[in-house]
């Protein structure tokens, strides 16, 4: 990026953040609650993209979010931690659990990784059902304290929105920096050609574990934000169906750029709200969209826009 | 554990192992031959069960006639999946796999909309009564599954290893390009593979319908087990899938009898994780997964 581009980017980011700060003023409480969930999902899709840049499409991500959620719930309920501590602690615990899970997972690649991640994540999810004295079993944990920031009660959705916005902006900035750093470049090289990366002296297994741990840490933060807002957490919220919705958001958006998954999330969130009337048919629409995108637009909306943009600029007589 | 309980649990684990073998062999076959990874395999099993529910429990057909219809119906579903999803995403295994996750959603919604989501459907047992073995009473309906499954697996083995088409299929799994040079029609082979894969899942679902309740979501649990079985056996190894199916059948049945269903599933997954650490290529696999 040259200076003028950096400046443009900084101004655009400031405009978006400014818009996000003003947004709740003109909206009803229901819409603010939707925005709270949306911000949690923004962190979730970006952190999922982080793990898949290595080529490791896994099905464990939503469970890693659950690990963060359960950690935050237990720390707030039983240890009396404030929300300032539970959010980062949830991220660290999720990263640690991800490390343990990656010991068998890093033995698999491609399709094997996909299904092994599903099975091992299911083991974690089942342990919440099994050890019900700690995790509350099927009913999960309830009455999770919400707490306060700067003396304001977080029970107010607008106050919670500003907390979520601050956490989301920090997470996105960190993830964006990691994506552009050497680590991010190494991760992308693994998906292009892992053998070539290995022969270039890169410890492939180490970088794959690192990607899974980093992605899981941010998913854990998202999970903590979610359970503090809902006040409860249960194993049903982190099941395979929810995971497939996450895959749909990311596939629709495309993983080619950092912003693709957010675009996918926005489009699919609107679609989700519009199909509220056809509740029973909704999974069918989403399944159909997933199939159509994978067949006709495998690079998602991001790839489509890029292609259109290239066409327009080359027809317009640009120098390329 | 008393002898009678032990014999009963052993018989149940043989029944469960047979069903797992039928389900997992289809998954392993499709992956082994054409790298087609089918997430909707559990839903194929569910469709097989619903065909029996519709024809036998609702329309009053004889049970085995309903089973005989369920098998080709699901085989056609498998072939359609090959034509409409796997062929267009051939260049990327994961894209095909994720697209079939979408197909799983679609099949669940359709089953729910046609037959209702509410209560689980009960299919009456075609053979009522139990057989006594060493003092243990085992439902005769369950016992009939074992010979049917073994006969199907044996027929599949003969097909794969003793017929020209089976040899062609195995040639594709070893080297598709070389197989194509020998005049084997790869497209026809992958169509046939998905047909067989669907047929075996449909048969398993049809046979299990009187034993488990039939719901649109019954495929979820089955597909998790089939994945575990395929990883333990070694991706793309048909023998491995059968051996691992019986191991997991034993683990699940004994785990459920001694502790509970959740613990049994957790034991199965933990076993898979241990196998991945000490032998990543699986029990019978040649290459790491």
TrEMBL record, chain A:
> Could you tell me which Pfam families the record lists for this protein?
BPD_transp_2
Q: Where does it sit, as one GO cellular component term?
A: plasma membrane
- KW Membrane (keyword) present: yes
Annotated membrane-spanning segments are 7-23, 29-50, 57-75, 81-101, 108-128, 159-178, 210-231, 243-272, 284-301
Which segments of the protein form a coiled coil according to its record? none
Q: Which UniProt keywords apply?
A: Cell membrane, Membrane, Transmembrane, Transmembrane helix
GO: which molecular function terms? branched-chain amino acid transmembrane transporter activity
Record flagged with keyword Membrane: yes
The name this protein goes by in its record: Leucine/isoleucine/valine transporter permease subunit
Provenance organism: Roseovarius aestuarii
Q: What is its main location?
A: membrane
Q: Which InterPro entries match?
A: ABC_transp_permease, LivM-like
The record describes its membrane topology as: Multi-pass membrane protein
Compartment(s) of residence? Cell membrane
Q: Report the superkingdom from the record.
A: Bacteria
TrEMBL record, chain B:
Q: Where in the cell is it found?
A: Cell membrane
Write out the GO MF terms: transmembrane transporter activity
Topology versus the membrane: Multi-pass membrane protein
* The organism's place on the tree of life at top rank: Bacteria
Q: Where are the transmembrane segments?
A: 6-31, 62-81, 93-115, 143-161, 191-212, 224-251, 258-278
For this UniProt record, the keywords arranged alphabetically read as follows:
Amino-acid transport, Cell membrane, Membrane, Transmembrane, Transmembrane helix, Transport
Q: Which GO terms describe its biological process?
A: amino acid transport
Tell me the lineage of the source organism: Bacteria, Pseudomonadati, Pseudomonadota, Alphaproteobacteria, Rhodobacterales
Task: Name the species this protein comes from.
Answer: Roseovarius aestuarii
Family note: Belongs to the binding-protein-dependent transport system permease family. LivHM subfamily.
InterPro entries registered for this protein in UniProt: ABC_transp_permease, BCAA_transport_permease
- Looking at the UniProt record for this protein, which Gene Ontology cellular component terms does it annotate, in alphabetical order? plasma membrane
Look up keyword Membrane and say if it applies. Answer: yes
According to UniProt, the name of this protein is High-affinity branched-chain amino acid transport system permease protein LivH
Keyword Membrane in record: yes
- Pfam families noted in UniProt: BPD_transp_2 (PF02653)
């Amino acid at each position: 990026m040259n200076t003028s581009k950096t400046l443009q980017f900084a101004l655009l980011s400031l405009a978006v953040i400014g818009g996000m700060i003003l947004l709740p003023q003109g909206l009803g409480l229901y819409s603010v609650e939707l925005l709270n969930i949306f911000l949690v999902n923004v962190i979730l899709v970006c952190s999922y993209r982080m793990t898949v840049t290595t080529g490791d499409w896994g099905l464990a991500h939503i469970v890693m979010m659950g690990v963060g959620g359960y950690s935050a719930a237990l720390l707030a309920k039983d240890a009396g931690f404030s929300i300032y501590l539970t959010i980062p602690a949830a991220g660290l615990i999720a990263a640690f659990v991800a490390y343990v899970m990656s010991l068998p997972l890093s033995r698999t690649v491609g399709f094997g990784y996909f299904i092994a991640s599903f099975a091992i994540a299911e083991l974690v999810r089942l342990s919440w059902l099994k050890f019900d004295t700690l995790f509350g079993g099927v009913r999960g944990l309830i009455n999770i304290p919400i707490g306060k920031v700067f003396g304001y009660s977080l029970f107010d959705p607008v106050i919670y929105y500003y907390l979520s916005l601050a956490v989301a902006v920090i997470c996105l900035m960190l993830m964006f920096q990691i994506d552009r750093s050497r680590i991010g470049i190494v991760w992308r090289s693994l998906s292009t050609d892992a053998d070539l990366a290995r022969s270039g002296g890169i410890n492939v297994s180490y970088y794959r574990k690192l990607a899974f741990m980093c992605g899981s840490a941010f998913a854990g933060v998202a999970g903590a934000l979610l359970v503090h807002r809902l006040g409860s957490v249960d194993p049903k919220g982190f099941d395979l169906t929810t995971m497939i919705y996450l895959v749909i958001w990311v596939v629709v958006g495309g993983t080619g750029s950092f912003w693709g998954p957010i675009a996918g999330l926005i489009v699919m969130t609107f679609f989700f709200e519009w199909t509220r009337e056809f509740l029973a048919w909704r999974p069918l629409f989403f399944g159909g969209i997933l199939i159509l995108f994978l067949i006709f637009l495998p690079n998602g909306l991001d790839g489509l826009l890029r292609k259109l943009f290239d066409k327009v600029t080359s027809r317009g007589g640009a120098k390329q | 554990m008393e002898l009678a309980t032990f014999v009963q649990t052993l018989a149940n684990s043989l029944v469960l192992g047979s069903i797992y073998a039928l389900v997992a062999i289809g998954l392993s076959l499709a992956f082994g031959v054409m790298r087609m990874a089918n997430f909707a395999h559990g839903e194929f099993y569910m469709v097989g069960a619903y065909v029996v529910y519709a024809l036998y429990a609702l329309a009053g057909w004889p049970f085995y006639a309903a089973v005989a219809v369920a098998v080709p119906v699901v085989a056609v579903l498998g072939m359609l999946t090959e034509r409409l999803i796997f062929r267009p995403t051939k260049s990327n295994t994961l894209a095909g796999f994720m697209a079939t996750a979408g197909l799983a959603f679609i099949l669940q919604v359709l089953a729910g909309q046609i037959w209702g989501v509410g209560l689980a459907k009960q299919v009456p047992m075609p053979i009522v009564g139990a057989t006594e073995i060493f003092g243990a009473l085992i439902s005769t309906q369950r016992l009939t599954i074992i010979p049917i499954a073994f006969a199907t697996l044996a027929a599949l083995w003969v097909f794969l290893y003793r017929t020209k088409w089976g040899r062609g299929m195995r040639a594709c799994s070893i080297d598709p390009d070389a197989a194509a040079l020998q005049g084997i029609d790869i497209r026809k082979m992958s169509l046939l593979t998905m047909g067989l894969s669907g047929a075996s899942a449909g048969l398993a679902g049809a046979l299990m319908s009187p034993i488990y309740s039939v719901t649109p979501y019954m495929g979820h649990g089955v597909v998790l087990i089939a994945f575990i079985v395929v990883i333990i056996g070694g991706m793309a190894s048909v023998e491995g899938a059968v051996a691992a199916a019986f191991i997991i059948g034993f683990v699940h049945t004994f785990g459920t009898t001694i502790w509970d269903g959740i613990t049994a599933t957790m034991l199965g997954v933990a076993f898979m994780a241990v196998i991945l650490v000490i032998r990543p290529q699986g029990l019978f696999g040649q290459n790491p997964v």
